[in-house]
Amino acid sequence: MSKMLDAKEVAKHNSRKSCWVILYGTVYDATNFIDFHPGGADVILQLAGKDATKEYDPIHPPGLLEETLSKSQILGPVDPFTISKPAPPQSATPAATSPTSTTTTSKPKNAVSHDPLPPLSNQLNLADFVLTAEKTLSPKAWAYYSSASNDLITKEHNSSAISSILLRPRIFKDVEHVDTSIKFLGTQPSSIPLFIAPAAMARLAHPDGEAGIARACGKNGILQIVSNNASMSLEQIASARTSPSQNQWFQLYVQIARGKSNKVLQRVNEAGYTAIVLTLDAPTPGKREADERVKNLGNTISAISGQGVANPSANTGEGLGRALFAGTSPNLTWADLEWLRSQTLLPIILKGIQTHEDALLAANNPLVSGILLSNHGGRAMDTAPPPIYTLMEIRKYCPEVFDKIEVYIDGGVKRGTDVVKALCLGAKAVGIGRAALFGLAGYGEEGVGRIIQILREEIETCMRLLGVNSVKELGLQHVNTSAIDHLLYRAPAHATGVTGLTEGVKAKL
Q: Is 397 one of the annotated active-site residues of the chain?
């Protein structure tokens, strides 16, 4: 058995010349690894000579250390009795010098609560999980998950736009049985028209991470789109499938160093994913101020892409969201679809369509199998249109898109009725992102399962009240959009050419 190392000895190795860190009770010599760290040397140096487990664990997959470092760099266990415990925060004390002075005993906003969580059966809607997540998550995790760009206008509008649409129930319908099942791309079954949209860094919420989401999706028969910036490797997430037939799609951020993306795509092909979701709504990160206000220490590396913050400037914000975009290519064009097809035979879904023009271009491109209408959850361009507007815009100007490719939507979904409204307007399925992370927070896999169960029950109830037996029956006759029709994009009076790869194609204006 290796001799235990004294934490005081470890603390002496806190420089670039000799950099030791403690992780999971073991001391590692990271000196020779510093300059090769995807997130830059500063991230490691800030934790040199210290126990870095808390910063490291939420976003690094199990086994990564053993795969990355040699045996000679694993120095041995640290004596736990020599590790200094952090001093507890000082409690506020009443000020006795002034009768007008005030104090508070409430927790700081977003401080992690240690109060017991409500039983899952008491969580009745997605809003309940937002409340428990805010109490459970660390300030860093809450800021990253909940933040959106600039003034949060688009984030809030995503939900309010859907809420403005009214439903039109019919009577005297036999609705004892309803069928919520669909098939993605004609062959990939789902028990309900719902999928988990790509959401990064799930282990910030719970150790189950993306694998927990995968198990919940498998048990409930729905699709998971795995984030390019997941906190577990794509192979570990794939191995969490509950059956060989479970479908998972992979979200791709194309890297400037295209060779990195080629290697990721090779792994995706080998791991059994069933589609590629090419993300296009964020060629550059949005300004997420809540995220940037939280000090970004250590937790900044994607387990899949290896991207993270490298030598952040003291003059610019550097939240976790911005850090994870490091290395993402800002110069993709329609021509890059040929490159993507050369790397994989999987169906290609374009994520981030926000206008009818781009939807039509995608529909007429033989390399595209589907489009995901999304504004990145309001995290990219603030004041971009809500996806439900884009869906209605396509319906108005180029409805033939729905006959050519599958159309999905995410953003702003809080109720099963929101899902049904999108289906009525032509969407094949609807995605949730933050909700899955909030379900994961505190509850793990079971929380995600409860989120899916709630939406399933709300979808079924909505269909019965509308008087339909199958999602195939849902259509424009079931919704009243007059409250927002006048807010849709108005095309110029003259015909606007839609050019690009599809020469001569014009939107029907």
A: no
